[in-house]
Amino acid sequence: MGALRPTLLPPSLPLLLLLMLGMGCWAREVLVPEGPLYRVAGTAVSISCNVTGYEGPAQQNFEWFLYRPEAPDTALGIVSTKDTQFSYAVFKSRVVAGEVQVQRLQGDAVVLKIARLQAQDAGIYECHTPSTDTRYLGSYSGKVELRVLPDVLQVSAAPPGPRGRQAPTSPPRMTVHEGQELALGCLARTSTQKHTHLAVSFGRSVPEAPVGRSTLQEVVGIRSDLAVEAGAPYAERLAAGELRLGKEGTDRYRMVVGGAQAGDAGTYHCTAAEWIQDPDGSWAQIAEKRAVLAHVDVQTL
């Protein structure tokens, strides 16, 4: 009897079989940031969550839980994309007030937002996705630890006060002559028990105008990587050496504007922002404070 010859499959058949098998294999995975995350009490935090490899509708639902350090086995319901009555009593009032909310970014991605962190918000956050799969495969929740740091950032005007003729007001009102040097100092310090960087900037607003991001025009600042940058209207003066910013000692910053112009009049502020590096390598701002330095009038010649 002759030897049996193996049956040869068409070259494309193994690939076709793999594709057919792969089409029926789903592995749900819930993704949250790598922890621990460090944030400061009184500030806002956003924690993202998205799900991949799922079956079912494109719009998935999400449920957020908190496990506090003193009760690591007790899940406290925070908020849900599906059930408006999901929140436990400890979060209910904050959810109703909009201080704690879940925002949908797309069908399979959301972000948990807490407007003002409290010390008791520290713990393990779990993002859970109710199953829409025909089989239970993969992970249906992801967890990340959040640690809440005390607010220890301090910002103030640096003594002695700015140069020029000053009136005894608080904050001081000072007058400089056109072409005269304008110097302002700021103290910014933090005692956070983690490695953080400070970014300090000097800004100007129209006198008596309410101060905010939309009304405060940046003059010059030191970034968290120690690079010095000027706001758009002041870039040429920084490049020409007419505008300078330096750090003196551990917590004092000094801005000098050479040759004051009429347009330099206004209310000057110092803003300090504290940054920390998250485990994924990205930098997050964890605190920001601002202090009024002086109301400056420029007397034309």
Count of DSSP-assigned helices: 3
Sequence of secondary-structure elements: HEEEEEHEEEEEEEEEEEHEEEE
Structural class, by secondary structure, is mainly beta
CATH class call of the largest domain: Mainly Beta
CATH fold-level label of the largest domain: Immunoglobulin-like
Characterization of this structure:
By secondary structure, the protein is mainly beta. The chain has 2 domains: 29-149, Immunoglobulin-like (Sandwich), CATH 2.60.40; 153-160 and 171-299, Sandwich (Immunoglobulin-like). 8% of the residues lie in helices and 44% in strands. The strands form 4 sheets. Strands 11-12-20-19-14-15-16 form a 7-stranded mixed beta sheet, with no helix packed on it. Strands 2-9-8-4-5 form a 5-stranded mixed beta sheet. The longest helix is centred in the first third of the chain and has 11 residues, at 13-23. The protein is elongated, with a radius of gyration of 28 Å. The protein starts with 12 loop residues before the first helix and ends with a strand. Mean pLDDT is 88; it is low at 1-24. It comes from Pan troglodytes.
